[in-house]
Design goal:
291 residues; mainly alpha; Hypothetical protein af1432
């Protein structure tokens, strides 16, 4: 199959709602979708989470983390935890679990190293996007973190399929593979990702920041530029946009950037710990259910 036919078949797969996800990924996506419903209130969110004990435990733990509990007022019940975090933070945690689970490729899979590096890049962008939203662009921090977590979901999905379609690795690492962008946006639309996040992610891939940076798309661009881990897949032309370094220097000094990277590092450590614990528990639960 040539490259054009490969991308056509993959696009048709996700456009028709036939994306292939592991059972545990599908489980978390189902919960995330329910939380997205406009009539889903706190009572319903608590009920959904109670039905999945792994997520319930992790939500309470997350609500007691430094990020959501800076004053040390511990909560021990799910309702208070949900109220403290808010629905957007819950969706962020669910999607972080989805992304992390998609990196679990078996030993010997040629895409495993790329997938691990893509996860490292993604968590750094998410942490930096939250900080840049607060300190620089003024957009919603949780919304920025969500957009960052899902902005490269297409890359994770394609890497998870590379074992059965080896030609994907060549396509994913080729320079200027704009088909990746089209695929990623199609996948996100099929998962009903909010329009504001889609617009921002599309702007991110286009690589044209406003001066001064002020939008959600600008926030993602600056976060990716600041990330100590570069994206391991193809680097599109927009990512070398000459205005990015100057744009960042205008709004935050070199010293400020260093402080932001240090703060982001602490948040990355916290997110990794929360997601890893939840992911291990989720996998164990799914193994029992399958048994």
């Amino acid at each position: 199959m040539n490259e054009a036919d490969l991308w056509q078949s993959l696009l048709a797969e996700v456009a028709d709602g036939k994306a292939v996800f592991a059972p545990n990924v599908a489980l978390v996506l189902k919960i995330r979708s329910a939380l997205d419903a406009p009539d889903c209130h706190v009572d319903e969110a608590v009920r959904l989470l109670q039905a999945e004990p792994v997520l319930a435990v992790r939500v309470v733990a997350a609500a007691n983390s430094v990020l959501y509990n800076p004053y040390g007022r511990e909560v021990a019940d799910l309702r208070t935890a949900v109220s403290r975090m808010g629905f957007q933070a819950l969706r962020n945690l669910a999607m972080a679990l989805v992304v992390r689970e998609m990196t679990h490729l078996p030993a010997g899979n040629p895409a495993r190293e790329l997938s691990d590096r893509l996860w490292d890049y993604t968590v750094h962008v998410a942490a930096l996007a939250r900080l840049l939203a607060r300190e620089v662009t003024g957009v919603d921090g949780e919304g920025a973190a969500f957009a960052a977590i899902v902005h490269d979901l297409g890359g994770f999905y394609l890497l998870s399929r590379a074992a059965e379609r080896p030609e994907l690795l060549r396509a994913l690492t080729a320079d200027g593979a704009e088909a990746q962008v089209v695929f990623s946006l199609t996948l996100l639309r099929s998962l009903a990702v909010p329009e504001a996040a889609l617009v921002a992610i599309e702007a991110f891939w286009a690589g044209s920041p406003a001066l001064p940076p002020s939008t959600l798309g600008d926030t993602l661009l600056l976060a990716a530029h600041l990330s100590p881990t570069p994206r391991p897949l193809c680097r599109l032309a927009g990512w070398q946009h000459p205005d990015l370094p100057q744009s960042l220097e205008r709004v935050i000094s070199g010293e400020g950037q260093g402080e932001m990277l240090a703060a982001a590092g602490a948040e990355v450590h916290d997110l990794r710990a929360r997601v890893a614990d939840a992911d291990d528990e989720l996998r164990a639960m799914m193994a029992v259910m399958q048994y």
